[in-house]
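To whoever is on call:

I kicked off a structure prediction for a single chain this morning and the downstream step that reads the tokens threw a length-mismatch warning. I double-checked the sequence; it's 376 residues and nothing unusual in it as far as I can see. Pasting both halves so you can look.
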Amino acid sequence: MMKQERIKEAVLIIVSFIIGGVLTFVIIGGEDIVKTNNTSTNSGLTCSAADCTKVVVDESGISEAVDKVYDGVFMIRNYQNDEVASTGTGFVYKIEDDYAYVITNQHVVEGADKITLITSKDEEVEGEVLGGDTYVDIAVVRIKNIDGLVALQLGNSENASLGDLVFTVGSPLGYEYRGSVSTGHLAGKDRMVSVSTGNTSSSDWVMKVLQTDAAINPGNSGGPLMNTNGEVIGVISMKLVQTEVEGMGFAIPIEYVNSKLETLEKGEEIEWPLLGVSMINVSDAKGSYRYNFNIPNDIDSGVVVAGIESGSGAADSDLKEGDIITKIDGEEVQDSAYLRYELYKHSVGDTIEITYIRDGKESTTKVVLSSSSDVG
């Protein structure tokens, strides 16, 4: 009997010791456990590139991602007649041999006599514009490789979701605010925004872009839009500037940019296909006394064929002057900007189907797209 009581006492002592140890551990270390769990559960976006290095997003923000990319972003100065005409942003996407290759917007380097790039260490180096294109609004600049530069990873915007945290590094308003970091969210995908590629206010091109509410200001153009892993998902190109609009910036999807880089690196022009017609928007033709086209009252969109170039695919088709083009390959054409957008999905030599209206009747015809050397 005495022996059984001693065994019970021993068991009670052991159990009490275990319970006391657990309670002490929870009281002393419980707060740290909770804190550790809170910081480790939010680990940023899934990497969209195969070689992406995943970073942790915690209560300190995205500082780890910023550190990862900061030395690969530049302020760009556009010199004309020995004076700074404009500024923008660019970023390294490739380091090869003795050179670093930089992406920026074409409108950032347009008309420059000289281009210089200012690093995160405040070094100013001269750059060489290898190639650029107005419609893509992308240019490639090459500089001599210098110590400390990093190349940013090009990601995939298609894997990004609405509401994802994004950020950019840029030079809003010029030198004083270079290297500014702004954060926001991916607010929209596949936005169709009409823009002017020239010095006029009328739109002649449509861009399919990403929308963000991150702060975008003059000088951010050409900078990277990145996910929380520091992968580039877009190239900042524009923002809506209206008194009643706040926080609507746009970036060119990186997949589209990447498809043109090799051509621009080589200094070659992107060969856009030609339909071979001069055109007038239906909305402009209906509201002007200068034109005498037969446009039905119920037709409010499309483009009127004002002329056909000899040697072009249009000249070998059924199209005639005065026809109203309403669709390309079944896709609606609102105006000349949308027509170019649909047209430039194709290459020289492709055959497309044009839907047009003549004398109130809808018809279709096939057109083989031309190159600039074919017409004249």
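Update from on-call: the warning came from a stale cache, not from the record. Cleared it. Sanity check on the structure: The domain at 157-259 is CATH 2.40.10.10 (Thrombin, subunit H).
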